[in-house]
Amino acid sequence: MNVEQRLQRIDSSIEQACENAGRSPGDVKVVAVTKYVTIERAQEAVTAGITHLGENRDTGLTEKYEAIGNRVDWHFIGSLQTRKVKQIIDKVSYIHSLDRHSLAVEIDKRADKPVNCFVQVNVSGEESKHGISPEEVRDFIISLQELVNINVVGLMTMAPHTQDEAFLRSCFRNLRMLQEEIKALGLPHAPCTELSMGMSNDFQIAIEEGATFVRIGTALVGND
């Protein structure tokens, strides 16, 4: 099965999840996670109609950017080291892993225009996961208001790898409630209208719980 066929299958799943939730499929954007595949496979995804590509390493993003350029919106989705910001800042449309003030300061310093950022939240509380705790989100986002190049478009989380659907739903639902809480504050630097959550194994559940960006790798582009 090629990327185009996989995308058709994923689009059908998105439509079903949106129907279940009373949402419009147009409200959900697919980020093809290309970190494990070749430049050629990423190009195949673009040809198939993908307009958002996600990478979790600066070198991977730079290599694919050189081949594909700004035909797509680039998403940095991995943990971002402060010293790597300068390598990717002029290439990305979104950073999904803002999780500390020092990183925000570096993004603000290196950017020449506001950068769309998702604050990464460790909703599940797993020690292996990056992100700030739900209790810290409000104060952290308020603390960013003096940084003119930080635009908090939403919240992001990585759910645990589990077959426990009820637990997955609770993680996604808790993030959505946090997002709604921040949005209600009406902060100019943090409209917080978006939710980046859901991957290959759980994106349908995430969409039913409010995801507006889903990050799909293996199910869309494979892993080689």
Task: Give a description of the structure.
With 224 residues, this protein is α/β, with parallel strands linked by helices. Helix content is 40%, strand content 17%. It has an eight-stranded parallel β-sheet. Strand 3 (73-76), helix 4 (85-88) and strand 4 form a beta-alpha-beta unit. The longest helix has 20 residues, at 165-184. It is globular and about 50 Å long. It starts with a helix and ends with a helix. The model has no long low-confidence stretch (mean pLDDT 95).
Summary keywords:
224 residues, alpha/beta
Could you write a compact summary of the structure shown?
With 224 residues, the chain is α/β, with parallel strands linked by helices.
Topology:
Blueprint: H1 3-21, E1 29-33, H2 39-48, E2 52-55, H3 58-68, E3 73-76, H4 85-88, E4 94-98, H5 101-110, E5 115-120, H6 137-142, E6 150-156, H7 165-184, E7 194-196, H8 203-208, E8 213-216, H9 218-221
Parallel strand pairs: 1-2, 1-8, 2-3, 3-4, 4-5, 5-6, 6-7
